[in-house]
Amino acid sequence: MIFTKFLIIFVSFVVAWGVADVSSEVPLRLDIYTRSVRAYQGLPLVVTCEVKSGEVLGTVVFTRPGDKKSVLQCDNKFTTKSCTPIVGGYQLSAAWTSGYQMTVESFSLAVDEGPWSCGDSHTPSHLSTVNIRSAPIFKVTHNELPAQKNNSARYFIPVAGVCTSPVPQCKWKIMEAGKSELKNPAGVNTHTFVETCHDDEQANCTLGFYKIPDAFRGKYIIFSVMISHPSIPGNPITPAPSPVLFFPGNNVS
Fold first, then answer.
1. Residue 88 pLDDT more than 60?
2. 24, 114 contact by CB (below 8 A)
3. Whole-prediction pTM
């Protein structure tokens, strides 16, 4: 009788423990993301899939939007040897204890633009998605630097580019001809004016001053600008500079 009571208590404990263990399981939650949700035709794109909670029971699969093809499959060990490319042009670039980073070697508008997903093959319903849209590659569309003339004491010089995203970075340079750069001369203003166009932005890199700065008087000056943008990594654009402009030593009315 005592043994029977002990057995009943023991079995009840095991069942209760099992139920508690199942109920305490954390559901799988994946997160797929990029540094930027804009991408550029022909350039690399890094996509990350990370486990935020729970456990991957099958394999982690990256799926591209254009044709819904799985392009990279990784086991649940999360090592640098865990992944196998299914489609060429998609490679594992990093792995850590809870995530994989994949590089799209050359972004294609036809198959790579749209909602990317990563998921667990064991539980296909546990998907995470991120919508990646393309943006135009930056180029200069309007440059008034070469048209500058010595006919005014006031200058407003714009250099504009295509509508794209994000806003490019403009770095102006002011050189005294045959000599050194004039850095941050008083009275000279540089600014990037931005106008929205559809889902993108158009930037106007501008340099201006309302009267001849003292640093320019009696000197020959050249203006130029260097423009950087994520769509031209490592290859900033330097449009044609101004001609050599002479600024007299006295005020110009």
1. yes
2. no
3. 0.78
CATH 3.50.50.60 is right for the domain spanning 140-247: no
Local structure of 219: helix, strand or coil: strand
Q: Which DSSP category does 237 fall into?
A: B
Is 91:105 a contact under the CB 8 Å cutoff? yes
190 has a pLDDT exceeding 70: yes
Contact 150, 248 (CB under 8 A): no
Instruction: Say whether pLDDT at 181 is over 70.
Output: yes
Q: What's the whole-number average pLDDT of the chain?
A: 89
Decide the pairing of beta strands 99-104 and 45-53. antiparallel
Q: Specify the DSSP element, H or E, that contains 172.
A: strand 169-176
How many residues in the chain? 253
Mean pLDDT of all residues in 220-240: 96
Cα-to-chain-centroid distance, residue 183 = 30
Task: Identify which of 95, 114, 14 has the alpha carbon closest to the alpha carbon of residue 56.
Answer: 95
Kindly state the average pLDDT of the residues 137-157: 91
Q: What percent of the chain has pLDDT over 90?
A: 79
What own/partner pairs with CB < 8 Å and gap ≥ 24 does 94-100 have?
98/50, 98/51, 98/52, 99/48, 99/49, 99/50, 99/51, 100/48, 100/49, 100/50, 100/60, 100/62, 100/72, 100/74
CATH assignment, 28-134: 2.60.40.10
User: Do 28-134 and 140-247 have matching folds?
Assistant: yes
